[in-house]
Design goal:
alpha/beta; 3-stranded mixed sheet; 12 strands; 36% helix
Length: 242
């Protein structure tokens, strides 16, 4: 099967490309560095020629409200149009658990707009919504830190290892289109304040502390019923990193 991975040089994309190639598939790792730019349309037609599946794990270079909305809407429109022209049979996209519940965040609004374009577009699709990656927890905690102390909510997150997200994307990409959203989360739901302490930070619990502009509760960033569940606990991931 020929599969094109948009964002194929990033954290998720590079691992996905490798795993799909190891399983014998013809995989194109598409990114601006390889001459494929979804925002301008450059190189899309050539990259998608003969492809059966496209997996979009690209991300906006800016998280500011205007640029991030432009990136996800323009890029997705360009990609869907190129897929229709090429006869692509499955569009897979990576999104965020709870995006539609955190519309105070410009990034989440942009992801919801992307999801809507995909769902109403011409290509059969599967959207995989993932919780926050272990790899980004330190940056999340640091965003709430001032003068060495992190003020973090006790609202629960259910973070997941990037490697488990890659494994889920691989299986989704090789399956038939679901024409719906599916979710993946890690094996443990814990307060963000507790996660910060496990990372070794000095933490003050503050349930009015915002998460990138949004207030959280226990349902904001945790999955619904019957998600896919990653195999890697945070403690094991941290031990491996050390």
């Amino acid at each position: 099967m020929k599969i094109v991975v948009i964002g194929g040089s990033g954290l998720i994309g590079s691992q996905l490309v490798r795993q799909l190639r190891e399983r014998g598939h013809e995989v194109t790792a598409a990114s601006p560095s390889s001459g494929v730019n979804t925002l301008t349309g450059e190189g899309l037609a050539a990259a998608l020629a003969g492809a059966e599946t496209v997996v979009d794990v690209s991300n906006s270079p800016s998280f500011a409200d205007g640029p991030v909305m432009e990136f996800f809407t323009v890029s997705t429109k360009n990609l869907l149009a190129a897929e229709a022209a090429a006869g692509v049979r499955h569009h897979v996209a990576l999104s965020v658990v709870g995006a539609d519940r955190l519309l105070d965040s410009g990034y989440m609004r942009a992801k919801v707009a992307q999801e809507g374009l995909i769902a109403s577009g011409p290509t059969p699709y599967t959207i995989l919504r993932a919780t926050q990656f272990f790899e980004f927890l330190a940056a999340i905690v640091d965003a709430g830190t001032a003068d060495g102390t992190a003020r973090l909510t006790s609202a629960k997150l259910q973070p997941v290892a990037a490697s488990d997200v890659v494994a889920a994307l691989r299986e989704v990409a090789l399956a038939s289109p679901a024409n719906r959203m599916v979710e993946i989360a890690g094996p443990e739901a814990r307060g963000l304040d507790d996660l910060g302490r496990q990372l070794g930070r000095t933490v003050v619990t503050d349930d009015m502390a915002r998460y990138f502009g949004a207030l959280l509760d226990d349902s904001s960033l945790t999955p619904g019923a019957n998600p896919m569940v990653g195999a890697t606990p945070l403690a094991a991931w941290l031990e491996a990193r050390q």
